[in-house]
Design brief:
With 232 residues, the chain is an alpha/beta fold. The protein contains ten helices and six strands; from the N terminus they run βαααααβαβααβαββα.
Length: 232
């Protein structure tokens, strides 16, 4: 067997392996039926408005303008208001239930287990490097069956640095005593996973599921996880 170019593989979790979009959508549909049945007939518009406003609030949170607690209810409160439901307690209940239910959803991205089995069999060291909250990411990885594949899950909660910050990558590399030139970061968001790894001096795989061109040079680009078998 020829010598392997890489030894240490760092995977993003949400949207790369754990199917964030379909798990989130399923949870929102469930909660609409339970808590806001008046919105059932407007589900598609509600989901679109929620995604838009949630993205905006995550930026606000990332820049320190709102807290984690505010993010969790405000994203529903504002969208409810757009549909004529001005009810903060309801938004808080919706937000709490969303956080408690969605991590237990188990849909993974197509071919996840096939590729992880392949990489494990080839004796790569596998890690997760994610910006999520530690307790939530732990539930997702154990419930979905991903946890046994990974030697460690690095979260921004633990290191104190969020991707794309170079220190988020440096922390993980140092922790597992990896060599950067033999490490590879695989993720679905180029400004976070690809640009961050690049700035830290680590090769990257851009898992471009949404056909968004990367705004920086990329070591490899794939649109299906199976393509990793050609690289690794
Ligand atoms: Mg992601």
């Amino acid at each position: 067997m020829p010598a392997q170019r890489y030894k240490w593989l760092f995977f993003d979790l949400d949207g790369t392996l754990w199917d964030f979009d379909s798990n989130s959508e399923y949870t929102l549909q469930l909660l609409i039926r339970q808590l806001t049945p008046a919105l059932v007939d407007h589900e598609a518009e509600f989901l679109a408005a929620y995604r838009h406003y949630n993205d905006f609030l995550w930026i606000e949170y990332g820049e320190g303008r709102i807290s984690k607690e505010e993010l969790r209810w405000k994203r529903f409160h504002e969208v409810f208001r757009q549909f004529g439901l001005d009810n903060r307690p309801l938004a808080e209940e919706f937000g709490e239930k969303y956080i408690s239910i969605s991590p237990y959803q188990t849909r993974v991205v197509e071919h996840t287990f096939e590729v992880l089995d392949y990489l494990k069999q080839k004796e790569y060291h596998l890690y997760l490097l994610t910006n999520g909250f530690t307790e939530i990411q732990h539930i997702k990885t154990t419930q979905s069956g991903l946890a046994p594949y990974f030697e460690k899950v690095f979260t921004s909660d633990e290191s104190g640095y969020k991707k794309p910050h170079k220190s988020a990558f440096d922390y993980a590399i140092k922790y597992v005593n990896a060599r950067k030139r033999e490490s590879l970061m695989i993720g679905d968001e180029w400004p976070i996973d690809v640009l961050g790894a690049r700035q830290a001096g680590i090769d990257q795989v851009y898992f471009n599921t949404r056909k968004k061109p990367a705004g920086c040079p990329v070591t490899y680009e794939i649109s299906n996880l199976l393509e990793l078998k050609q690289i690794l």
